[in-house]
Design goal:
Layout lengths: L2 H40 L6 H14 L6 H25 L14 E3 L2 E3 L5 E5 L6 H13 L4 E3 L17 H14 L2 E5 L6 H5 L4 E4 L7 H8 L5 E4 L6 H12 L6 E5 L17 H8 L4 E4 H5 L5 H10 L4 E5 L17 H13 L4
Parallel strand pairs: 3-4, 3-10, 4-5, 5-6, 6-7, 7-8, 8-9, 9-10
Antiparallel strand pairs: 1-2
Helix pairs in contact: 1-3, 2-3, 4-5, 7-8, 11-12
This protein binds phosphoenolpyruvate and manganese (II) ion (MN).
Length: about 350
């Protein structure tokens, strides 16, 4: 046989071995996928380092060359990793909060207000509940403006332990009393898993704040009640981490979860945080949960609240949250960024003019 003929023959042998290898790898991948599904049913983690080590050791024992053991180990590790990735994609598809799992939008009913039903909501109220009179003044203004859901922090997770920490349960009681007088629904942050059940007696929506987005015990406790949850995106959380935090709640049985983008940390100093508008359509696409935008904490600037709220709604947000205080200069938290009542009325009129609210 000529030299060229021999080369041709070897190449065609290689091509058929390649095809066989591909067939075997695909077969292996199918089995690995099935193992992944089985593991998920049993609640066992995808990656099992002990099993991986056993498989590699067995292969090394069988190795007769010409590849050295290190090369065999390296090659098979790549194969194992590719299979693991397949299993993980499968798990992602199966997240309870994902659109792939449930096509229809989740609707959250707060009295006559439906969050996620196509008509965006405006949620407003003070950063902190400071007194009965303060909350009452805001509630009266909200009622007059046609707002149905009021926010107000009773447990405040502050950067400094020396800053106002909130009125605690006393604050929840104030919210309940004022809300029932004006027929409003309420949202307030809870920071301790032990307070979740208690909170359900006083408020209509439990907020889990940015600093607690990955407080898994708090998420689990929130998943064990039936009260709707407003989950804020963490200060430096990726969208994937945010979605998984929501999954913690939903996987425990509480399907009433709303997501809220509140700005993330970047190098930009012009705003308090950077409002990640792109998170809105991504979360709407990837999950079936309502998505809101907190324009106050994301920007920290009163002068750009209205355009940011309009941008949020234009991007598909189901609602906007904003902080309102009767006298922001004396506020015990976030004094610089809260709107006073006339400013809130202007803000609302401005957003409404866009036709998006
Ligand atoms: C708040 O909404 O009161 C608050 C503390 O916001 P965040 O958790 O987003 O900082
Ligand atoms: Mn605040």
């Amino acid at each position: 046989m000529s030299q060229g003929g021999r080369l041709q023959e070897l190449r065609s042998q290689l091509d058929s071995v390649n095809n066989e290898l591909l067939g075997l790898l695909s077969e292996r991948a199918r089995i690995a996928q099935e193992i992944g599904q089985e593991k998920q049913k049993q609640g066992v983690p995808d990656f099992d380092p002990v099993r991986e080590k056993k498989m590699l050791d067995a292969l090394i024992e069988q190795n007769k060359g010409p590849f050295d053991n290190e090369t065999v180990r390296h090659l098979f590790k790549q194969i194992f990793q590719a299979s693991l990735k397949l299993q993980q994609v499968d798990t992602k598809k199966q997240l309870l909060v994902s659109r792939k799992k449930k096509q229809e939008d989740t609707l959250i009913k707060l009295g006559d207000t439906i969050v996620g039903g196509g008509k965006p909501v405006m949620i407003a109220g003070p950063c902190s509940v400071e007194s009965y009179e303060q909350v009452r003044q805001v509630a009266a203004a909200l009622k007059e403006a046609g707002i149905t859901v009021m926010r107000g922090g009773a447990f405040k997770p502050r950067t400094s332990p020396y800053d106002f920490q909130g009125l605690g349960v006393e604050g929840l009681k104030i919210l309940k009393e004022v809300a029932s007088e004006f027929g409003l629904k309420t949202i307030s942050e809870i920071v301790d898993p032990a307070h979740i059940e208690l909170a359900c007696e006083y408020i209509d929506v439990i907020q889990i704040g940015a600093r607690n987005m990955q407080n898994f015990e708090l998420l689990k406790a929130a998943g064990d009640v039936n009260t709707p949850i407003l989950l804020k995106r963490g200060l430096a959380a990726t969208i994937d981490e945010f979605v998984h935090a929501a999954e913690y709640i939903v996987s425990r049985g509480n399907t009433q979860v709303m997501l809220i983008e509140r700005g993330i940390r970047t190098y930009e100093k012009a705003t308090r945080n950077t409002l990640d508008i792109s998170a809105v359509p991504i979360l709407k696409q990837e999950t079936h949960l309502p998505v809101l935008v907190d324009v106050t904490h994301s920007t920290g600037r009163k002068d750009i609240l209205a355009p940011c709220a309009r941008a949020a709604l234009a991007a598909g947000a189901d609602g906007v949250m904003v902080e309102v205080h009767p006298d922001p200069a004396t506020a015990l938290s976030d004094a610089a960024q809260q709107l006073n009542i006339p400013e809130f009325q202007d803000f609302l009129a401005n957003v409404k003019k866009s036709g998006l609210l």
